[in-house]
Amino acid sequence: MNEEELHPLLVFTGSANRPLAERIVESIGIPLGAATITSFPDGETFVKIDENIRGRDVFIVQPTCPPTNHNIMELLIMIDAARRASAARVTAVIPFYGYARQDRKDRPRVAITAKLVANLLVAAGVNRVLTVDLHAQQIQGFFDIPVDHLYAAPVLYRYLATKGLSNLVVVSPDVGGIKLASGYSQMLDAGLALVVKRRVDAEHTEAQFVVGEVSERDVLIVDDLTETAGTVTSAARILKEMGARRIFAGISHAVLNPLGIKRLKDSCLEELIITNTVPVPSVEGVNVTVLDVAPLLGEAIKRIHTGQSVSSLFRVDGKTILL
């Protein structure tokens, strides 16, 4: 039996988060596909697939995190290269889907960029998308191809089960995240609260009041994404003022910039729990726990490849996760 018969599944990676891709193929038990990715002096990206992929089931791992535009373009070029090399199917594994916050016209004369990115992926030739914790679940409907939307919640749940948290309350740091927080509260058999905020500008938010009881209770703030950390740190501040005991934050995608890191250092968070969907930032002075989603993505890739259901990945300890 030749190598192609042994390994009809191939996983390639762009440059956005190679360590995650290496952990994914390790969990599957196959080598990482060979590809050359370089840039011309003018910044143009060059991609060459360095092995035969004709008739193979190809998965390309590339979160579209900063530098967002570069990583999206690199992903599109890799998809095109795979399609032109006669891959049987190309699946884009996008652990973090950039531009997801631009999912609607919330003011006049603006683009719906999340839909534009979906159009670009399909035009490049992708057959399927695998992603984690979309900022807005309706983005799945922007695609006319299958989208497998995974949750980081099972990974976070298993970690929190080891923490021995007592009298826990799950908190949404804003109104838009209440459904996510409600799902976590049911999964953890915890209370539910909401911080109502006011956005000052793109980098600043102001927590105004709390709906729910948090006094003398452990608190878990949950969100899908943080960049400037303004929402989570201002929520933590008002929760502490309301008498919360210990404050944790569980966030799927930590796309932190220098301002966000500074805010976290000055915050009252006891622990920041994140995943490795994007490259893990160095945050000295903050208690950061990084959870690995590679086994989750690896199992999903295997099931997609073999035509099995991925719905059991939404169950943990007999509970179905509905976020």
Automatic annotation (TrEMBL):
EC number(s) given by UniProt: 2.7.6.1
Chain sites annotated for binding Mg(2+): 135, 174
Annotated cofactor note: Binds 2 Mg(2+) ions per subunit.
Gene Ontology MF annotations: ATP binding; kinase activity; magnesium ion binding; ribose phosphate diphosphokinase activity
Cofactor(s) demanded: Mg(2+)
Residues binding D-ribose 5-phosphate: 199, 223
Domain of life: Bacteria
GO terms classed as biological process: 5-phosphoribose 1-diphosphate biosynthetic process; purine nucleotide biosynthetic process; ribonucleoside monophosphate biosynthetic process
Pfam (any one): Pribosyltran_N
Group of enzyme by EC: transferase
Subcellular localization: Cytoplasm
Binding site for ATP: 42-44, 101-102
Presence of the UniProt keyword Transmembrane in the record: no
Alphabetical UniProt keywords: ATP-binding, Cytoplasm, Kinase, Magnesium, Metal-binding, Nucleotide biosynthesis, Nucleotide-binding, Transferase
Cellular component aspect of the GO annotation: cytoplasm; ribose phosphate diphosphokinase complex
KW Metal-binding (keyword) present: yes
Residue intervals of the Ribose-phosphate pyrophosphokinase N-terminal domain: 10-125
CDD domains: PRTases_typeI
Pathway: Metabolic intermediate biosynthesis; 5-phospho-alpha-D-ribose 1-diphosphate biosynthesis; 5-phospho-alpha-D-ribose 1-diphosphate from D-ribose 5-phosphate (route I): step 1/1
Catalysis: reaction(s): D-ribose 5-phosphate + ATP = 5-phospho-alpha-D-ribose 1-diphosphate + AMP + H(+)
Alphabetical list of NCBIfam families matching this protein: PRK01259.1 (NF002320), ribP_PPkin (TIGR01251)
Assembly with partners or alone: Homohexamer.
Biological function: Involved in the biosynthesis of the central metabolite phospho-alpha-D-ribosyl-1-pyrophosphate (PRPP) via the transfer of pyrophosphoryl group from ATP to 1-hydroxyl of ribose-5-phosphate (Rib-5-P).
PANTHER family for this protein: RIBOSE-PHOSPHATE DIPHOSPHOKINASE FAMILY MEMBER, RIBOSE-PHOSPHATE PYROPHOSPHOKINASE 1, CHLOROPLASTIC
Family per record: Belongs to the ribose-phosphate pyrophosphokinase family. Class I subfamily.
Protein name according to UniProt: Ribose-phosphate pyrophosphokinase
Organism of origin: Methylacidimicrobium tartarophylax
Chain's gene name: PRPS
